[in-house]
Every structure is written in structure tokens, then in C-alpha cells.
Inverse folding.
């Protein structure tokens, strides 16, 4: 259950935009959210089938000064619902004593007596918008809770062995030093724990409302002068600096996590229920391959070897397909994310969730160690953008656009809009095409453009 907050979201409770398409509010009614209004771009282009593909925008973040830009476009052919969701807010953290009330007025303050941070997140839903909606309401709250649990140690360098400050063993400080445990490790741990707790909440809520589905999650937290980017899924974040491009996330797909998935199947073969094989082969094997030696890979292999094909090897592969067509258990195109607790392989009792990790990979960037320029930005986007645009093209667009529009107070929002429109392409006949005549993205597209210059050092 959601313990009364945030409120449960269901299709029947979603406000509707023009054309009867439900719209989940980007900024929920929560004291932790900066209640900036959402804007719309006039004159939405028409998608295939004559239905609109509207843009939407978020407001500004006050901690990293300047207008934080975001734009979204809905692919009406994919579903009636926008499965991409977004959230941004300020998070205030103070040391929480045992038994202390959690919902107090200080939650909405951004004062020097509290540790404060800025938060942005994108959620790409699959199997419906419900999991993404819950995550956009709740992940920031989980992060705040987990940061509060370690708040007493965030000001110490290095953090103490015992949070209470007691020294039970004289070698405790030496242990922390030898393990090279730093304050940023506590923040990384808080983010990892927050993702896990949010995943549990989504599972409980979806079960209680008899709903299914999941979502990927990409979250950025600016806290104590450092930028933390946590990713579970195939969305992507990059830092576009004056003289460099810094990838801040890596995509988690069945292909990139093949060895982890195969190792899990090796340790717990019952998870495959005799329907799948953990081995990877260059192609799906046929009956005539039995007895032949063919190329294969197991969980411990980066390279390839040869294996004599047995009848059991003819089963469907645990990881099958290549690129965007790769699937986990023939079902999911991602290997990490939130939700999907009720998801089973079609016509079987095989659960997908044991293979689907909710734990993010967290990357840290210390802004204090770099000379941040006026046009340096963090770009976060769901896979609808990255499917058709690479890091190089996005970087070139960002640098060129920001350099040509330095006096425009809304230039970050305009850049986000340009990126969305570029990936969406233009309609030619019955297809949407890019300028280079390649097929455009037919997925939902959400983009954050976050300026890094003139940040508030208190956050």
C-alpha cells in the first residue's frame, strides 16, 4: 500500500487532455514538488492515424539557476496513454531521530539549516502507464527518506563507522579509511536503497489495484556540489561540456546484461522451468543442429567457444535477438527497471521479475573539480530520443543551439523542444522520417535539458 500518500493513480482518475487522451500530472500534489505549471506547445503535429502527438513542458528548477527545459511528445500509435512520465523537485533533508514525525513543515523548506538537493527523473513505462505514474509520485520521497537515514554522517569526512558516533572498536576509523568509504558512497547507497523501496511499493500498489506493468527509471540528484545520475533501464543521460562529453549512464538491456542473466539461470535453473536455455548461440538452433559443434557463450564467457548441440539446447534462449529486438525470456526489451512483479512469460508460469533488477547504476560527477561554463548542460532522455540520435548528434545540436541563443531566457526549453522534434521527424506519406531519410522514432520521447552553470552551492 501507499500509506495514504501519494494518492493512488488509476486510469479513471487521470485528468484528460484534448481528444480524450488521459494525462498524468507531471507535478503531483506533494509538498516536495516545486509546483511549476506545465506548458504546452501550440499547434501539435498530427501523428499517424490523424491523432495528435502533443508536446508538453515542465517548469524551472530554482536551485540550478536558469530555465531547466523539458519537452515530451506522445506516440499515439503506441497506446492511448503516454507511458513516459517525468518529475522534478527540491529535496530537503535533515537528521531524523527515531520516532520523529516525517510529514512536517520543514519538508517544503530550502533553508541553510538543512541539506537540500535538486532532483529530476524520467520514467518510461511498458505494459501501461501505471508503474511510471507511481514512480514519478514516489521515488523522490524514497530518496529523501534514505538520505535522512544517513544525514548524520553526510557532514563527516570520512563517515563514521557507527552513525551514533560511538566507537565500539578502536580500529573502526582505520577500517573506514582502508575501505576508502567517502560521503558520496552514502549518497550512492541511499539512491540504490531508494530504488529498491520504490520497486517494492510499486509491486504492492499494482497488486492491490490488480494492475500490471513496469517502467525504466533515470534519476539525477544534485546534492552537496555533486551530480548523481542513477539509471535502471535504457534511458540515457550525458553531460555536454564545452570541450567534452561525459556519459552519465549506461543502458541495461538483455544483451548488455547477458552474463548476469545467464549466471542467475545457472544458479537457479528452476527459474527457467524447463522452457528456456541459458546458453547464447549466434542464431536459434534447429533440429538438424543436434550433434553438431556450434558457437556458444555461457555466463562466464566474454569470448565464444564451441559446444556439441544437445536436444535441450533447442529450447528458446534466455536472451534472444539483437539490438532493439533483443528480449529477455522473449518478453522484455530491458533487464533493469521498476515494477513488473506480476509479469509472466506468455502461456507459462515463468516469472520475469527474478531476472529484472531494480538496482540502478549510479555515476557521480563532482562539479567543483571542473570549470563549468554557461552552456554546459545535462541532457536526460528516454530511449525514444536515443533510438534515432547518437551522443555526437545531440551534443552538436546542443552546442550550436545554445551558442546561437545566449540571450533567450527560454533557450534550454527550446533546445529540449528541438531535440524532441528532431527525433520525431517529419511526416512523409504514412511514415515519419528524419532529415537524413532514416525512419524517425515511433516511441514516446521525453527530454530534460538542465543547465549546470550558476548552481546554488547550498544544494
Amino acid at each position: 500500500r501507499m500509506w495514504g500518500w501519494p494518492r493512488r493513480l488509476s486510469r479513471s482518475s487521470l485528468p484528460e487532455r484534448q481528444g480524450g487522451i488521459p494525462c498524468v500530472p507531471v507535478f503531483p500534489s506533494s509538498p516536495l514538488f516545486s509546483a511549476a505549471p506545465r506548458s504546452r506547445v501550440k499547434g501539435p503535429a498530427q501523428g499517424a492515424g490523424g491523432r495528435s502527438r502533443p508536446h508538453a513542458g515542465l517548469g524551472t528548477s530554482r536551485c540550478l539557476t536558469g530555465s531547466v527545459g523539458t519537452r515530451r511528445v506522445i506516440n499515439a500509435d503506441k497506446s492511448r496513454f503516454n507511458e513516459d512520465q517525468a518529475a522534478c523537485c527540491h529535496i530537503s533533508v535533515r537528521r531524523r531521530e527515531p520516532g520523529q514525525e516525517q510529514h512536517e513543515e520543514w519538508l517544503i523548506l530550502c533553508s541553510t539549516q538543512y541539506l537540500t538537493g535538486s532532483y529530476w527523473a524520467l520514467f518510461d513505462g511498458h505494459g501501461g502507464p501505471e508503474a511510471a505514474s507511481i514512480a514519478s509520485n514516489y521515488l523522490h520521497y524514497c530518496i529523501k527518506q534514505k538520505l535522512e537515514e544517513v544525514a548524520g554522517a553526510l557532514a563527516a569526512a570520512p563517515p563514521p563507522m557507527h552513525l551514533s558516533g560511538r566507537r565500539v572498536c578502536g580500529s573502526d576509523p582505520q577500517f573506514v579509511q582502508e575501505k576508502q568509504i567517502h560521503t558520496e558512497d552514502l549518497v550512492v547507497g541511499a539512491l540504490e536503497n531508494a530504488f529498491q523501496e520504490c520497486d517494492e511499493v510499486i509491486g504492492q500498489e499494482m497488486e492491490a489495484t490488480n494492475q500490471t506493468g513496469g517502467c525504466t527509471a533515470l534519476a539525477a540528484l544534485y546534492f552537496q556540489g555533486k551530480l548523481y545520475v542513477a539509471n535502471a533501464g535504457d534511458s540515457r543521460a550525458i553531460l555536454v561540456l564545452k570541450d567534452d562529453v561525459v556519459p552519465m549512464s549506461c543502458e541495461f538491456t538483455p544483451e548488455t546484461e547477458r552474463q548476469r542473466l545467464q549466471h542467475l539461470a545457472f544458479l537457479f535453473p528452476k527459474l527457467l522451468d524447463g522452457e528456456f536455455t541459458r546458453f547464447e548461440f549466434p542464431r536459434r538452433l534447429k533440429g538438424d543442429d543436434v550433434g553438431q559443434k556450434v558457437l556458444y557463450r555461457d555466463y562466464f564467457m566474454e569470448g565464444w567457444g564451441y559446444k556439441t548441440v544437445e536436444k535441450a539446447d533447442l529450447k528458446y534462449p534466455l536472451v534472444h535477438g539483437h539490438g532493439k529486438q533483443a528480449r529477455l525470456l522473449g518478453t522484455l526489451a530491458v533487464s533493469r527497471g521498476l515494477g513488473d512483479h506480476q509479469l509472466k512469460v506468455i502461456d507459462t508460469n515463468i516469472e520475469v521479475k527474478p531476472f529484472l533488477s531494480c538496482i540502478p547504476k549510479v555515476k557521480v560527477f563532482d562539479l567543483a573539480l571542473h570549470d563549468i561554463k554557461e552552456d554546459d548542460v545535462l541532457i536526460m532522455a528516454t530511449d525514444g530520443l536515443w533510438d534515432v540520435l547518437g551522443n555526437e548528434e545531440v551534443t552538436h545540436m546542443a552546442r550550436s543551439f545554445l551558442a546561437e541563443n545566449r540571450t533567450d531566457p527560454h533557450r534550454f526549453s527550446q533546445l529540449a523542444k528541438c531535440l524532441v522534434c528532431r527525433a520525431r521527424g517529419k511526416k512523409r506519406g504514412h511514415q515519419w522520417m528524419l532529415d537524413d531519410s532514416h525512419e524517425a522514432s515511433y516511441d514516446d520521447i521525453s527530454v530534460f535539458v538542465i543547465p549546470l552553470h550558476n548552481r546554488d552551492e547550498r544544494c
